Amino acid sequence: MNAFATAFQVYVAALVFARVGAMVMTMPGIGDQSVPARIRLAFALLMALILAPLVQNTVGPIPSTLGGLAGAVIHEILIGLMVGSVLRLFMTSLTTAGEIISMQTTLSFAQSTNPSMQGSSTAVATFLSMLGLTLVMATDLHHLFIGAIVKSYTIFPFTRAVPVNDAAALAVQTVAQSFSLGVQLAAPVIVFSLVFNLATGLVGRVMPAFQIFFVASPLSVILGLSLLALSLGGIAMVWTDRYRELLDIFV
Prior knowledge:
The protein is an all-alpha fold. 79% of the residues lie in helices and 0% in strands. The protein is built from 10 helices and no strands. It has helices at 2-26, 37-55, 66-89, 92-104, 109-113, 123-138, 141-155, 164-185, 187-206, 212-250. α1 (2-26) packs across α2 (37-55), α4 runs antiparallel to α6 (123-138) and α4 (92-104) runs parallel beside α8 (164-185).
């Protein structure tokens, strides 16, 4: 009896670690590559040890076959990846906003002139992504991540099949909302760029001999980044509120 109880506890801990580990690997902040792998592994093990006694009553009996055991582990990994990936997808809204701002202020021109930067994010996109991670930690949104891990065992119990269709629909909706939010966050710079380009085009038509390019490019960068600096507070508030709404789905 003791051997069976020990085997069951190990089985429950393995299932919990499979789901928690998949979530930790994909969640923003905790699962970033800048965080050492040992810290991520230690956090996942700690969460698994804490949650295992709480959810063991909802776990079914140990499968009698190796295929059933592997299927149970894969089931937990898929659910963990589903929840963590949706939260990660929303982070692309800041990257989208940064890329749009870079294009409107001509800062993305560096990617065209420097082959080593091909495929990498612009400086503004990287800055906004780091700002998002800072906001996650500063506003205690990472506590909601932990709450989402615990709540997932209520929303997606061990006996429920992986909701593939619902997960795909939520992923598509999240991507659409992320792109829409990215455009909204970059809207002040988009409006400025439109007005600025119209003004420089008018000056170029009125004064053809004037070297408008050498004057407009520095002004576009300086004024665009100044407008971004002035709107950072609003960007932070809007993005944090929208991210908290997404987390409320799982909490």
